[in-house]
Every structure is written in C-alpha cells, then in structure tokens.
Amino acid sequence: MTENDNQSVHAKRTAQPTRSWRNYLSGPILFLHMFAFVMSLTTSGLYVPFYISATLFPHRKVSVSTGSICAVNESVASPETETIQKKATEFNIYVSLVSGIPAVIASVFLGAFSDRFGRAVEGSTGGFLALLMAAFSYIADITENNKQRSVAIAFLEIAVGLGLVLGRFSTGYFIKATNFVWPQVAACCIYTVVIMIIVFVLPETRKPKTPTETLSKKMSCVRHVEKIFSFYVSKSAERWKYNICILIFFATGITAVGRSGVDILYQISQPFCWNSVKVGWLGAVIGLFQNVICMGMIKVFHLCLNDEGVSILGSISGISGFMITAFASTDVMLYIAAVVGGGAVLTLPMIRAIMSRMTSPDKQGALFGGIAAIETACYIVGSLIFNPIYSHTVSIFRGYVYVVMAGMVFISLILLLVLVLAPRRLSSTYKINDHTVIKD
C-alpha cells in the first residue's frame, strides 16, 4: 500500500464521528414514546365507546371498570351495541383527520430540515411518526450502508415493539385500577421525559458546518420539499424502484396503522365482550410476536434471505393473520391470528432498509420524512377506509373489514414480486441485446 493510500484510509477513519453511549439512546427514546403513545391510544379507544354508551343509553348497565360495551347478561349483539360501534367509528374518522393532516405536513417539512439542522428538530417537535422518522434518520447517520443498517432499523422496531407490549399490557390493568384519567396523565409525564432526553442528552449527528450555513437563504422550504419528492419523479434509473417501494409501504402501512380503532371495537363487542385487561393482553401478544420476536429474528432470516425475501415472508404472514381474524369466533382464534400474523410487521422495516440503501447520506432525512408522511397518510386513509367498512358491515359480517385488509396486503405481495423479478428480467433483456446469452 502506498503512502497516499495510507493517508486516504486514515482520513476515512478519522472522518467517522466518534460514538458514545448517548448515540444509542434512540432505541430507549422510541421505547418510552411508544409506551406513552400506546397507553394514551388504548385508553382513548376504550373510553370513546364507553362514553357514547353512557350518553346515548344512560340506563344501559355497562361496567366502567371493564371497558366492554356489552351490557350485563347480553349474549348477542343488540341494536344499541351496533349503534355504539357505528358512532365510535365516526369519531375515529374525525380524530384521524384532525391529528393526521397536521402530522403529514409536519413530517414533510421536518424530515428535509433535519438533514441540515439536525435530527433533534423533528424528534422533539413532531408526533410519534415524526419521532420514528427522526430515529431512522439518526440510525442511518451512524451505521454503514449495508445489512448493518437493516439490523439497526430492526432493533429500533424491537424498541417500538417492547414499548407497545408493555404499554398495552399495563394499560388494561391501569384502567381497571384507576379508571380512564390517570393513564392519560402518566402518558403526558412520559412524553415530557422524552422531550428532555432529546433536547439535553441525545447528541446531534448532522450539525451545520458554520453559522452562515444555518442562516443561508438557500434553505428555502420549497427546496427541502422538492428533495422529498425527488426520489419519485427524478429521471434516475432507480425511480421505478422508489415508486414500487412506496406503493408497497402504503398498501401494507394502511393495514398496520389504520386498524387500531377497529381492533378495539371488534374485541369489546359480541361475541368476545372483552374487558380492558383482555384487550391489553392480546395487544401485548401481538406486539411481542410482531415487534420483538419476528424483528429479533431478522438477523436469522438474513442468513438465507435478502430484504426483499423477508418482506415477502411478512406479507404472507399478514394475509394469513387477517383471514383468521376475519372468521374468528373464540378468544383462542384471535390469539392464533396474532401468532400466525406476527410476521406482517417485517415488510415495513425491510422496505425502509431497501430505500435507505438506495439513498445517499445527505438525503436520508428527506427520504424518511417522505416515508413518515406516507405512514401518517396511511393512518388517515386506513381510518377513512376501514372504519366506514366496519360500520356498514358490522351487522352483516363483522370480520369483513379484515378480509379487505388481507386484500391490501396481497396487493403489496404482488408488488414485492414485481420488485424482485423485474430487475432479473431487465438484466436478461440486456444480455440478449448484447449477445451475451450462454447456451447449454
């Protein structure tokens, strides 16, 4: 090796930022935030139908400590129960619009700004998906562009899963012991702790080089928003891959983040009539299998599969889980669906990793900003699709909405096959045109 080569290697090594234990706080931050988010979401999801029941049917005997909307000694679905579910789905739609539209706008701007101003900006000013986006961008800054990044993203998903598991598990007992108020108070306190850690403890990975750069007039909002959409409209040869990936992400995402309100209504009404503790237990099992066990096995899956293969496996698992849920009539079937469908969550982090692998370091924030905006849009669109479907089919076939969800995941499976097979077909075409085909 020449002296110039030695100097080049030394320069690359010294250019890498030094990392301390504080650089790995993105996982604990996501855990705490997810714990608070799930606690607040579950409490709201159980309180809304209870409030509607108490308001519309004040003489109906429903236990406040259980969270179920089934009346005492009610064995079959009554017109009152169906009315409560329909009103609750309407409220879910309003909430998704009010909270989702501002979150989409925030995700679009904050993701691109974080590439220049730093990840803490979006991490402490956005909602859950904005924080998730910031964490993924943060990991992209401190990992190499290979399977190491896929594993790191998977570990973030595990942190999310642990927060989800413990949040859902504890919320059911919390509500049973204290009613609906104190879980929300606890969630607010945890949010405050998260903000303090982001602002005062977590080190920044992308700092402006000079104060002049920070105030540069080139930092226009239009330019940053253009960076987000440039992946999907540019003349790059990779554009079709970006478009396929974001369609896969959208088709899968609307079932992952748009189902929460429907799930709770499905469980607390006939034939299950679950209380808050049972809802929490199933949520914990789903989170355990999806975000902890399956995510923890990504390293094992990578021994024989690439990111695309793991995504296909996740889609097949998701379709199976939704179909079992659609026809479930007992508690055991819901738990079987949770286990069988546990791999559904694999598709989203793998698509993130695939897209991140195709993207340069200075555009990671813009990429994940766009993904977070799509994920927020998934929450809105999923709520707009699944809540009305459930409302209009609850008296005919309660599980129909889950058949629709399975169909959406099937669409993403088809697109994944296109993503895998199209490059091979194009490669074969180029070989034929260049007369390089090898015959037996």
TrEMBL record:
The chain crosses the membrane at residues 29-52, 93-114, 120-139, 151-175, 181-202, 240-259, 279-298, 310-328, 334-354, 366-387, 399-422. Pfam families: MFS_1. The keyword Signal does not apply. Keywords: Membrane, Transmembrane, Transmembrane helix. Signal peptide: none annotated. It comes from the Eukaryota. GO terms for cellular component: membrane. It is found in: Cell membrane; Membrane. It is a multi-pass membrane protein. GO terms for molecular function: transmembrane transporter activity. This is Major facilitator superfamily (MFS) profile domain-containing protein. It comes from Magallana gigas.
